Amino acid sequence: MEISLEDVRHALVELGRLRFGEMQVEDAIREIVETTHSMFAVDGAGLMLCDSAQHLRSVAASDDRFAHLEELQIRHQEGPCIEAFDTKELIGATDLEQDDRWPLFSKAAVNREVRAVLASPLPYNQDAVGVVAVLSERSRPWSPANELALLAFTDLAALLIASIIQGEQQSELAGQLQGALNSRQVIEQAKGVLMGTQGISARAAYEQLRSRARAERRKLPVVCAEVVQGAVRLP
């Protein structure tokens, strides 16, 4: 069933009350995920937020299969949600069995009945703090209407996430987000060091840092902190 933009508009109007604090933020996020699932008529929908190690962790999911996205992408350090998060762009995979962008992840995902994924980065202050995604157990082309709909639901989720970060109420979720933002700041500083000393692009600097973290089996923020500290010690 194809999504109509009128249906999306109606759903967003119905969810509009979430912006005015009529329920707990965690419950509001779950309602967005459930509405996204039903609107797309998919086999799973969910919202993932990064932790202090910059791993995407599931906060709300409409189907148990969504947990596979978290597990497999952390294990293989690749996948559509990670790419959406890293590039801050909408990423779609219509058939993972035929997709060679993430070979390790795709093979494992197909074995667990995850065949198609559409992932949208969750923005905050010109950066990404997570991803909203939908998945299908069958190959599925994602239409422009699908993409616009997911972006609209992502924007609503982003408003709620911003309210958590900026609010005075402390919670486990708020702590996770603050830790993620702190580690992201160190990563951006390390990227700047490599860009300045090696004359490379931001993307190349990030890939170099991530490759080093993988090779040394250490957390990315720890590696980045060492790079920044090394630059500070230079005369």
Major sheet strand order:
2-1-5-4-3
Total beta strand runs: 5
Structural class: alpha+beta
* Mean of all residue-level pLDDT scores: 86
In percent, how much strand structure appears in the residues? 5-15%
Shape: globular
What's the story with the biggest beta sheet?
Answer: 5 strands, antiparallel
What low-confidence regions span 5 or more consecutive residues with pLDDT below 50?
Answer: none
In whole angstroms, the N-to-C terminal distance is 63 Å
Radius of gyration: 18 Å
Q: What helical percentage do the residues reach? A: 55-70%
Order of helices and strands: HHEEHHEHEEHHHH
Tally of contiguous helical segments: 9
If you had to describe this structure to a student in words, what would you say it looks like?
This protein is α+β, with helices and mostly antiparallel strands and 235 residues long. It is built from nine helices and five strands. It has helices at residues 5-15, 25-40, 66-76, 80-87, 103-111, 144-166, 172-198, 202-216, 220-233, and strands at residues 44-50, 56-61, 91-93, 116-124, 127-136. Strands 2-1-5-4-3 form a five-stranded antiparallel sheet, with helices on both faces. Strand 4 and strand 5 (127-136) form a beta hairpin. Helix 7 packs across helix 9 and helix 8 packs across helix 9. The radius of gyration is 18 Å and the shape is globular. The relative contact order is 0.13. The model has no long low-confidence stretch (mean pLDDT 86).
